[in-house]
Design goal:
With 297 residues, the protein is α/β, with parallel strands linked by helices. The protein is built from seven helices and five strands, in the order αβααβαβαββαα. It is 62% helix and 11% strand.
Length: 297
């Protein structure tokens, strides 16, 4: 049975841990506010740019651009966006599980033959896939400590370079899209090749019913817009993942703080019971000693 000193030590340790979780929750809340503001500001721009690009694709010959042309898929790249640090609940575990399920469902043969390649953004994803039989061709870790647009441009540059050289035929991104603070949504999106507007129309998806007049010309605008679109779409993904991570960490630390309070209550109750039992035992020993002295006298 634990002694009073052991219980006191454990209560002190839990209280110290609770102070840490409270501080981490406050830090995550402050970071979440900034990350959420940046994400919300980026969403309309990214959405409008995507709609404009798809509308332009119905006006020009997109086959002139390699980023629109669908070719037989032999080599696939999956960009997995996780966090660099833990203590954020099931944020990473759920995404990694979804990534493995996606690979096993759609690309089992490519994985077995080595034609499936991974680009890991975030240390947790790299550590997970690097320890297993997955072909990781690039890693980008430590970027969420100071997230900048240049990080997105660097990743996009690597993807476009490999895609242009024919090293892979399709690029998909899996990440946590910010939905609510406690419940991000795992999103899987095709990044390359870009799906033109004509394909969406065949699928019954319409983004705009307005017929715009473009100046100087649709093709010139398309050529200028395409690299900006690709850079900004990945930048939005990084912002979404960062906001989701901070929300998940804040929720996890709040749960940890609440659990610590409950554990302290249980330990305090155990301490009081043990102390009461100790006092009762001492009283019994005193009474017993007094009775023995009376009988001896």
């Amino acid at each position: 049975m634990a002694t009073l000193r052991d219980i006191r030590r454990r209560i002190g340790a839990v209280k110290s841990t609770q102070k840490i979780t409270k501080a981490m929750k406050m830090v995550a809340a402050a970071k979440l506010r900034r990350a959420q503001d940046a994400m919300i500001a980026a969403r309309p721009y990214a959405r409008t740019m995507k709609q404009l690009l798809q509308h332009l694709s119905s006006k020009v010959d997109v086959t002139a651009s390699p980023y629109f042309v669908e070719r037989p898929v032999q080599n696939v790249v999956l960009v997995v966006v996780t966090s660099d640090r833990g203590l954020c609940g099931s944020f990473n575990a759920n995404l990694l599980k979804a990534a493995v399920q996606h690979i096993n469902k759609y690309y089992p043969e490519a994985h077995e033959s080595g034609h499936l390649k991974l680009v890991c953004v975030g240390k947790k994803g790299f550590d997970y896939f690097n320890k297993r039989n997955y072909k990781v061709i690039a890693r980008h870790t430590g970027i969420f400590a100071g997230l900048h647009f240049q990080h997105a441009k660097t990743i996009v540059s690597e993807l476009l370079d490999g895609y242009s050289k024919g090293e892979f035929d399709k690029v998909e991104i899996i990440y946590n899209e910010f939905k609510t603070i406690t419940q991000p949504r795992i999103a899987i999106e095709q990044y390359l090749p870009i799906v033109p507007e004509s394909n969406n129309l065949q699928a019954g998806i319409t983004h705009s019913q307005v017929d715009y007049i473009y100046e100087p010309s649709s093709k010139e605008i398309m050529d200028a817009l395409l690299p900006k679109h690709l850079n900004f779409q990945l930048w939005r993904v990084l912002l979404e993942s960062n906001a989701s991570e901070q929300g998940a960490r804040m929720a996890a630390m709040e749960n940890a703080t609440t659990n610590a309070s409950e554990l302290i209550r249980v330990l305090q109750l155990s301490y009081n019971k043990a102390r009461q039992a100790s006092i009762t035992k001492e009283l019994l020993e005193i009474v017993g000693g007094a009775e023995a002295l009376k009988k001896a006298g």
